[in-house]
Each structure stands twice: as C-alpha cells, then as structure tokens.
Amino acid sequence: MKTKLIALALFIATAAAVALFPVFNGVAAIPQPDSYPVKLPPVTPASNERPRVEAVFVLDTTGSMSGLIQAAKEKIWSIANTMASAQPAPEIRIGLVAYRDRGDAYVTRVVDLSADLDSTYATLMDFRAEGGGDGPESVNQALDDAVNKMSWSQDQNTYKVVFLVGDAPAHMDYQDDVKYPVTIAAAKQRGIVINAIQSGNNGETLHMWQQIARAGSGDFFQVEQSGSAVAIATPFDRELAELSAKMDETRLYYGNEEKRAEQRKKVEASDKLTASSSVESRARRATFNVSKSGESNFLGDGELVSDVASGRVDIGAIEESELPAPLQAMEPSERQAVIVEKAQQRQDLQAQIKTIAEKRSRYLKEKVAAEGGAKDSLDEKIYSAVREQAAGKGLRYEADSAVY
After folding, report:
1. Of 40, 107, 268, 276, which has the highest C-beta tally within 10 A?
2. What CATH number does residue 183 fall under?
3. How far is CA 140 from CA 109, 136, 145, 164, 300, in A?
4. What is the mean pLDDT of residues 31-47?
5. Are residues 223 and 273 in the same domain?
6. Dihedral pair phi/psi, residue 193, rounded to 5°
7. Residue 373 confidence (pLDDT) above 90
C-alpha cells in the first residue's frame, strides 16, 4: 500500500511539473488545439534593430525625359542622403524600373531593391532618354513590375514607397496588361505608398497622376521637364570625391569563389561611377558612405577589414584560399598588420569626409537661401513626401530642408 501511495505522489508531482514548466521558463502555457486561433501579442523589435526604407523609382526613359533622367543621375545620392537623415538612421534599399512602350528598345527594365546603391547607380548611369514621341507609355506594366517584381520586405514596419516619374499617361487600351488601379490596390495591401511626379504639364498626365497618387496614399507634384533639382557645385566637391576614392581603396574582400564574383561586381560598379560620374555626384556619395545608413553600401558583404577590426571574424580562421590574393602569401602577423593599417586609414578618411561634408552642407544651405530657397525643387518635394509618410513607420525627419 505504501509503495502505491509513493507512486501516486510521484505521478501527481510529475504531472504538475510538466504543466507548469512553460511558466517557469517565462512563457505562457501552450494552448490546446480547441483554443486556436491564438492571438499572439505583438513582437517588440530588438533595441539594436534599425528601421528600414525601401524606395523604388519608376522612370519614364523616353526621349522627352532627358532632362529629368539627368537630374536623377545627379541627385540619387542626395535623395539617399535625405532618406538617411532620419532618426534613427534607417537601412536603405533602392530599386529602379525604367519604362518606355511597346515597339521601343524595351518596355521595362527592372533593377531589384538593394542596399548596394553603387551597383544601382551604375545601372542608372546607363539609362538614356530615347524612343517615345507617340503619346501614352507602358505605365501600367511599369507600376506592376515595381509592385510585383521587387523583393519588398514582408515587415509591415518598413517604409515602402514608389516614386512614379513621367510626362505621358498610361496606355489604357492594351488588353493584356494589369491596369494601374488593380496594381495600386495590391500595393496598398502590402503597405506600399505610391507617389506620382509629373514632368511637364500634359493635362491628361496631370489627371491620371493625381488619381494614382490619391489611390496610392501618396503625394502628387509637378516639376519642370528639366527636373527642377538643386544643382549647385561647391568648393568642397573635388576633395570629397578624391577622399571617397581613397576610402574605396581600403576595402579588402574575402570568401568563396561565388562570393568573390559578387564582390567583384560591386567593386566594378564603384570603379565605374568613380571614373564616369560627375565630381558633385561623387561628393554626395562620399557623404552618404560615411553615414550610418551608407555603411552597407560602402562595405558590401564579406569586407575583411571591417569584419576583423570589429571582432566579428578571426582572420586566422579563414581559409587561405578565401583571403584576398595579396594576403595569401603573407605570414599571419603581416596580415594582421595590413588590417590594422587599412582600418586606421579608413578611420582617418571618414573623419576628414565628415568634417568637409559639414562645410559643404553649410555652403549649400547659404547658397540656396541666397537664391530664394528651393521650395519648388524636386529635392524638397521628395523630402516633404518622405518626411510625412515615413513618420507612420517611426522615422523622424527633423531637418527643415532636404540634403543637397
């Protein structure tokens, strides 16, 4: 009898421990199947998790858009700097959709969302304003591609935005494409805001662009055919461009052959823009790359100096074949010395760029103010839209103007 009582007591104790185990571990007890569906509490992001901005520019690249495309090439880094000026500093990914019309060299060309703005910009540099001239364009397909062919984040806290830029209305007579009201409805379900920027003053475009912006919970605004962007050279641009090129030279990449192939593409893209973009554009890139938001663009994936200097990676644990070629024949102490030297060079260059960038910013603000302000510029209109729309995602833009 005594043995049976002991066994019964152990059974009860074990059952109680099993039932209470989840509570002891700080989580609620697992609900039984008949209590589903369960409404879980919202997940609070980790304190070090940064907000995200994902922006896709949908650009009409027909002949009449030459001025605005050139403005986009010059201002993409300014727009990135403006987006980066939020508190807290966001992670930024940018994508592009270039569009024309059926019968042109292409209907759309899609560049997926990426934090590698160098590669995105290198592609933008190749866009030329050609074709068109016959009225409506393939706006419907361009918007559909922007919403459905991009690797948009599934995170509802990400500020996701499209800027449609063009001067001609959509072809509504094509029977086999998705019309923009359907695409906009899908965008709203996914939390994507659609803004419409009209170049020029075509009446039919005006009416349609206003409809698109209103339905897409975005803003509509007009700019001149030239783009109306702030384009002021400064005495600091060349030095910033030169320092930026030197900072690029401090990068060392490692990894397997597949990773190295991707890294080579990134280096080729930054080399291309250093060789071919304007001094002013390279100065804007320099400013972006030393910002918290620009770190991903500057480093890319598998950058050895940053990974080792930060302690994320032990250089001794990397296979020799995966090291940068110049380091493979070195002794371990020599490799470490190279990392230390590159890290110090980078730190010095970043400090110089930040100091000069501040001088450039003050110079530009004074110039813009002296010329009567930039209220009607492309820069300010984009900033106004971003500041208002991103607030709903916890991003605070407190500056009184865009970054030029």
Report:
1. 107
2. 3.40.50.410
3. 14, 10, 9, 11, 33
4. 30
5. no
6. -90, 140
7. no
> Considering the domain boundaries, does residue 336 fall inside one?
yes
DSSP string covering 21-70: HHHHTTSPPPPPGGGPSP-PPPPPPPTTPPPEEEEEEEEE-SGGGHHHHH
What are the C-alpha distances in Å from 132 to residues 63, 73, 123, 214? 6, 20, 21, 27
Same domain, residue pair 161 and 112: yes
Does one domain contain both 202 and 241?
no
Residue 28 lies in a domain: no
Residues linked to residue 289 through DSSP beta bridges, in sequence order: none
Arithmetic mean of pLDDT, 204-218 = 98
- pLDDT at position 292 over 50: yes
Assign 48 a pLDDT band (cuts: 50, 70, 90). Answer: low
Residue 19: is its pLDDT beyond 70?
no
> 289 with 205, same domain?
no
**Does one domain contain both 284 and 205?**
no
* 275 has a pLDDT exceeding 90: yes
Q: How far apart are CA 245 and CA 325, in angstroms?
A: 21
Q: 226 and 187 in one domain?
A: yes
Number of domains in the chain: 2
Whether the pLDDT of residue 160 is over 90: the answer is: yes
The residue count of the chain comes to 404
Is 324 domain-assigned?
A: yes
For 243, the 3-state DSSP assignment is: helix
pLDDT in tens, 50-64: 899 999 999 999 999
User: What is the reported pLDDT for 224?
Assistant: 87
**CA pair distance 239, 228, nearest whole angstrom:** 26
Task: Please give the helix or strand (H or E) that residue 143 lies within, else none.
Answer: helix 139-148
Quick one: which of 174, 216, 208 has its CA closest to 389?
216
Structural domain containing residue 221:
52-230+374-393
**Looking at the structure, do residues 190 and 260 belong to the same domain, yes or no?**
no
Higher pLDDT, 46 or 359: 359
178-214: string of b/e by CB count within 10 Å (b at 16+)? bebeebbeebeeebbbbbbbbbbebeebbebbeebbe
Average pLDDT over all residues of the chain: 88
